[in-house]
Amino acid sequence: MRFHSYRLSSLPLLNNNEKGRIIMHSEKKGWSVNEWCDATSIGRTKTFELIGNKSIQSLTVGRRRIITTSPDDFFNERTSEKQDRAND
Description:
Elements: E1 14-16, E2 22-24, E3 31-32, H1 33-40, H2 44-52, E4 58-61, E5 64-67, H3 71-87
Antiparallel strand pairs: 1-2, 3-5, 4-5
């Protein structure tokens, strides 16, 4: 029988902080592009398209892009937009 081992930081909803404490994404303030893509199951190309059309907020620090819109906020906003269109 094979068992799969996963690093906690590779799981989409969990991340370790500097003290080793597991934190949920809702507590995080910023995500790398790869972390955000993993958490949302959206590809890099679509993610950069969403950044370009201001659907998600990001900032650049040096050469690194940090996404400041949480995956939860992104999906909540998209869900509420869809419900608003269905109600019209």
